[in-house]
Amino acid sequence: MEVSLFLGFFWGWVTVIITGILFVRPSVLRELKKLVVEDRGFGIMYGFLSIFLGLGTVILHNVWTPNWQGLITLIAWLALLKGIYVIAYPEPSKKTNFEVRVLSTRIVLAILGVLSFWMLILLYMK
């Protein structure tokens, strides 16, 4: 299996599963948002995990094309940048209204979830 296919299935399923859990159980999303902002240790670990997964994918697969391969790259860069932001700038998240943070996260998850589901459909049709 080539790297692009593996990463497509990996990021597609991870995104669809996590999005599904967080939409079926909104209380889990609220708990996670609270933990990332209020518990600095958890926020740092979350940030490092995002950096690790994002950077690994960017190094292996930095393909900017308007198809499912470009979506993998976009998800990887978003993970990398999110990890850097969470570690380097925790203060803005604390200043933002909690409900606004939850709503913005739900919007981004909905968009990424739909795009990832589309990507999985394309990959399974190959």
TrEMBL record:
Does the keyword Membrane belong to this entry? yes
Q: Which domain of life is it from?
A: Bacteria
Key words, A-Z: Membrane, Transmembrane, Transmembrane helix
Transmembrane ranges?
6-24, 44-64, 70-90, 102-125
Name-wise, this protein is: DUF2065 domain-containing protein
Lineage here is: Bacteria, Bacillati, Bacillota, Bacilli, Bacillales
